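User: Predict D-galactonate dehydratase family protein's structure from this.
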Amino acid sequence: MRIEKAEVIVTSPDRNFVTLKLTTDDGLTGLGDATLNGRELAVASYLSEHVVPLLIGRDAAQIEDTWQFLYRSAYWRRGPVTMASIAAVDMALWDIKGKAAGMPVYQLLGGASRDRMMAYGHASGKELPELFDSIRHHQELGYRSIRVQTGVPGLESIYGIASNKGLPGNEGVRYDHEPAQRGALPAQEDWDTRSYLRHVPTVFEAVRNEFGPEMPLLHDGHHRMTPLQAAKLGKSLEPYDLFWLEDCTPAENQEGLRLVRQHTTTPLAIGEIFNTVWDFQSLIKEQLIDYVRAASTHFGGISPLKKVMDYAAMYQIRSGFHGPTDISPVGFAAQLHVGLAIHNYGIQEYMQHGDKTNAVFEQAMTFADGYLHPGNKPGLGVELDTDEAGKYPYETAYLPYNRLADGTVHDW
Ligand code: CS2
Ligand code: MG
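Assistant:
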């Protein structure tokens, strides 16, 4: 079974997506997600210029060998563009292997370790009443676990708040197509860590008073704090029993996590911008985190995601794969198959794609009562409608960035 054709498809139904489609000489097709939010064309070009020529004629059954070949033969290792490209090839080959075997990919990874997978959704509101409405709305959609983000007094526009924008008809409720904005330049948002640190515990106190102690609550710090500030936030949130505090620091300074860890028992999740198993190496070995936030798409695909989770299992660290809408339905399916198969599944972020995206990508995945399942179609269970995809050409879109009150650029 040889790879005969490799196509890179860029489409922008609700947002930009980069998809690799491989076709074998016996007519099987496989899809892989290579979407890198705000830098999509760099990955599309890496794939078409440098990877596609290497794939034609290769044995489609050799997933591990192809991964190692693309990783090692490039000499220049890691980085989001390279790893998203390798991820797309890896996923597409798993998709093909599943179809060849007549089995969903999770069967090839060891079979299901559970019946269904708990998901969490994103509730947000600039003020508490909007936030409470958003939490109730998510409960109505079936979510049992909810991420909570709010505005901060004095700050006009910050990460994670639906009331900044939102979908037509869904303003103030969903945050699904955030945060990349179509347009020639990135939007500027504002930030003040001291105001944030004072405000967030009052929000969680209010949410617990309104909704009770039971519901798992999550929060994303989005890389903005120093280790000391993160330690302080973790400590001040302890009474509200968070499921996790995510990306409390930028995490390039991995040693900084030791300080956070020594000061708080709030569980920590990190890794949505990590690209390889090695980025997690010391964080896992030193047990500085509780959840692996990698996404199959930015992490080199299904093969390395399974490996990092097996390593994490030795330290009781669980999965919490990155699932925003900038992971395409293909990348999302890929990590659902991993999540169903591994023993140390934790939770899956699920923001829900829009109708146009769902028309481009036909999906076997299901979401019911707050739980996900990848479905039982052979392969990943996702097919791409090329006619639909062709309706939506690429549109320039950038993620926002932050400036402090004095004009300094800050982590976004
Ligand atoms: C986020 C993302 O889902 C999350 O936890 O941190 O919304 C992130 O901002 C985007 O994926 C950036 O592309
Ligand atoms: Mg995040």
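The first helix runs from residue 40 to 55.
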